[in-house]
Write a structure and sequence with these properties.
Oligomer: homodimer
CATH architecture of chain A: 2-Layer Sandwich
Number of domains of chain A: 1
Shape of chain A: globular
CATH superfamily of chain A: HIT-like
Order of helices and strands of chain A: EEEHEEH
Largest sheet of chain A: 5 strands, antiparallel
Helix content of chain A: 25-40%
Number of helices of chain A: 2
CATH class of chain A: Alpha Beta
Structural class of chain A: alpha+beta
Strand content of chain A: 15-25%
CATH topology of chain A: HIT family, subunit A
């Protein structure tokens, strides 16, 4: 779990920003579970609901060309998910962010601060079992 | 949708093998939807349930060291998911399959035919809205 800025936190989850050229959030489950299938079903559903909220806000706020979602955890074997807004003119498109850089892009995206506030507000409307930490 | 072997198919989904060094399945939704959030909630849940079944079988059958799950769709902007069984001695570990190759691996994995039969059997026990095509 890197020292990146925290967007939102609850008893079970922490959502952080991976500071990059594109809007890139990482949702960590706070447990030591390595794999999704080791989590209780309700927790898995909460993860997917949170990812869905982030995706919707990325599409709405940034008009992203594509959403990329990934769970690897090879370096850090704990359940966490990457959610990325992609643009056809970003530095890696159409490669994944882990692929080969395609160009030196200069995106002119709207303010990320507003986006993060909107993501947090969206997640706080969800009925999650664990409460938000303020 | 590549011409890879079909593992299982229903009205809404097709599950294919991406022939690679590691066990790598791709679950395609047959619609033209680009993003998960455009699908009905029930369909999203079915996708996650199918991915969960595949993950469990990868862990059980292959004793995979880590499961990797990803949805990009930058080249093919239609909802599809990659589910990969990773091993600490595979050619890319701990990098994602889209990252930098780490070594020339020689994995000695159990028969994939048996694995695919087991995955198919597992999925057929799920209560999915769309029926399997035989």
């Amino acid at each position: 779990m890197s020292e990146s800025p925290v967007v939102w936190e609850s008893r079970d989850f922490v959502l952080k920003v991976n500071e990059a050229e594109i809007p890139w959030l990482i949702l960590y489950h706070k447990s030591q579970y390595r794999e999704m299938s080791q989590l209780p079903e309700g927790t898995r559903l909460e993860i997917y609901t949170i990812i869905d909220s982030i995706e919707r806000e990325m599409l709405e706020y940034y008009k992203a060309d594509k959403i990329n979602i990934a769970s690897f955890g090879n370096y850090l074997p704990r359940v966490h998910w990457h959610i990325m807004a992609r643009f056809v003119n970003d530095s890696y498109f159409p490669e994944p962010l882990w692929g080969k850089r395609q160009r030196e892009a200069s995106l002119n995206l709207p303010d990320i601060g507003v986006f993060l506030e909107r993501v947090k507000a969206r997640i706080e409307t969800l009925s999650l079992q664990s409460e938000s930490l303020s």
